[in-house]
Design a protein that fits this description.
Blueprint lengths: L3 H10 L13 H4 L4 E9 L10 E2 L2 E2 L3 H14 L4 E8 L9 H16 L3 E5 L6 H7 L2 H5 L8 E4 L4 E4 L22 H13 L4 E5 L7 E2 L2 E2 H5 L5 E6 L6 E5 L9 E5 L7 E10 L3 E12 L12 H10 L3 E5 L3
Parallel strand pairs: 1-4, 4-5, 7-8, 8-11, 11-13
Antiparallel strand pairs: 1-14, 2-3, 6-7, 9-10, 12-13, 14-15, 15-16
Length: 324
C-alpha cells in the first residue's frame, strides 16, 4: 500500500508536486537489483494527462500523474524487481492526445531503465495512432496488423493481451465508444493462438470478457472450451472484483475472471502483483486508496466507507489454476 501521507496528504493537499520530485529511485540503487521472471505487475486505467490542457470538458486534471509516479516508486522498491509491467488500457486520460502519451513515456521510462519490460494494451480512452507513435513497440510486437495485441511470457504461462478498443473515426482528441469490440482479424488470430497453445494461457484486455463477443457469441463461451485457457483479466470498471465462470450446467471446467483497480483516476486505486507458479498464477490486489470522481478537496471530510473498501480489498487474492 502507499503510505498514509500519500493517500491523505499529497492527493488532497499537495497535488501540484512536480513529477520529477516524486521519489525517483536512483539508478545506482537499481543497478544490482535482480529480476524475478515469475513476477509481473498488472495495472490499468492510469488516465495520464498532459498538464493543464484545455478541452471542451474543462482543464485536464493531472493529480493521477502524481499517483502513477508514486505507484512506480513502489514497484521500483520491490526486491526482487518484477520482470514486467502490463498496462490494460486507458493510458491516456480522456481523448488520447499524443502529448498524454509523451507524459506516460516519461513515467514508464523509469521502469524500462530498471530493466522492467512494459507491455501496453489500449482502452476506450486511447487512440492507436498517437499511442503507437510514442510507443512504437506496441505495433512491432503485435501479430495483428493495425491492432495492439501481443503474447506475453509470464514464466509458467502466457498472457494473450488483446486490443478491445472500438475506435471512432474522428481520431485524436475525440471520444471513442465506451464499449469494447474484438474485430474479425484479431478474433481469428486469437482462435489460432488458443488452438495452438502448448501450455496454460490467461487472456487480458481493457474490457471485461462478458462485454466482448466471438462470432456473435460471448467470448467467454469460446475461451472456456480451449484446453489451456485458465482465466481472464480486465480493467475498465476501476474496481477490484473476482468471479468464477463456467459454461453450461453439465460443464466441469471452471475459470476465474478478475477486474483490477485504476492506477489513479477514481474508484479502487492501486495495482496488482502476479506470481506464476508451476500449477497456477496468483494475483494479489495492492490497493492504496478509494475515491469517487476526484480526490477530496482541502478540508473536505472523508467518508468512512471509503476506508472500509480499502481495508476489505487490499491484499485480496485470486488464483488462476492452470487448466490442461
Amino acid at each position: 500500500m502507499l503510505d498514509k501521507q500519500t493517500r491523505r496528504g499529497f492527493l488532497f493537499g499537495a497535488g501540484a508536486v512536480c513529477l520529477s520530485s516524486t521519489g525517483c529511485v536512483a539508478h545506482a540503487a537499481l543497478s544490482g537489483a535482480k529480476h524475478d521472471d515469475s513476477l509481473s505487475i498488472i495495472m490499468s486505467d492510469a488516465h495520464i494527462a498532459q498538464p493543464k490542457k484545455k478541452t471542451i470538458w474543462g482543464e485536464q486534471p493531472d493529480y493521477q500523474n502524481v499517483i502513477c509516479s508514486r505507484t512506480i516508486d513502489k514497484i521500483l522498491e520491490m526486491r526482487p524487481l518484477p520482470r514486467r509491467v502490463v498496462v490494460l488500457g486507458d493510458v491516456a486520460l480522456w481523448f488520447g492526445y499524443r502529448a498524454d502519451y509523451e507524459v506516460a513515456f516519461t513515467l514508464f521510462k523509469r521502469l524500462k531503465d530498471a530493466g522492467i519490460d512494459v507491455h501496453l494494451a489500449p482502452g476506450n480512452h486511447d487512440h492507436r495512432e498517437p499511442m503507437i507513435s510514442v510507443f512504437p513497440e506496441c505495433a512491432e510486437r503485435s501479430p495483428v496488423k493495425g491492432r495492439i495485441a501481443s503474447i506475453v511470457n509470464l514464466g509458467t504461462c502466457d498472457l494473450f493481451l488483446l486490443d478491445s478498443l472500438q475506435a471512432s473515426d474522428k481520431g485524436e482528441g475525440a471520444n471513442n465508444p465506451v464499449s469494447g469490440q474484438l474485430d474479425a482479424k484479431q478474433a481469428s488470430w486469437l482462435a489460432d493462438a488458443a488452438g495452438k497453445a502448448k501450455r496454460p494461457f490467461i487472456v487480458a484486455s481493457h474490457h471485461p470478457v462478458d462485454e466482448l463477443t466471438y462470432k456473435e457469441k460471448p467470448l467467454s463461451d469460446f475461451l472456456v472450451n480451449k484446453k489451456f485457457y485458465s482465466g481472464y483479466i480486465n480493467g475498465h470498471v476501476h474496481r477490484w472484483s473476482s468471479v468464477w465462470c463456467h459454461k453450461g450446467w453439465g460443464g466441469r471446467t471452471t475459470t476465474r475472471a478478475v477486474s483490477v483497480p485504476s492506477v489513479g483516476w477514481w474508484g479502487d486505486i492501486g495495482f496488482t502483483v502476479m506470481r506464476t507458479k508451476s500449477d497456477c498464477a496468483e494475483l494479489t490486489n495492492e490497493q492504496s486508496d478509494f475515491f469517487i470522481l476526484s480526490p477530496l478537496g482541502k478540508g473536505e471530510a472523508r467518508p468512512a466507507s471509503w476506508d472500509t473498501i480499502i481495508k476489505e480489498n487490499n491484499g485480496c487474492k485470486c488464483t488462476f489454476t492452470y487448466n490442461s
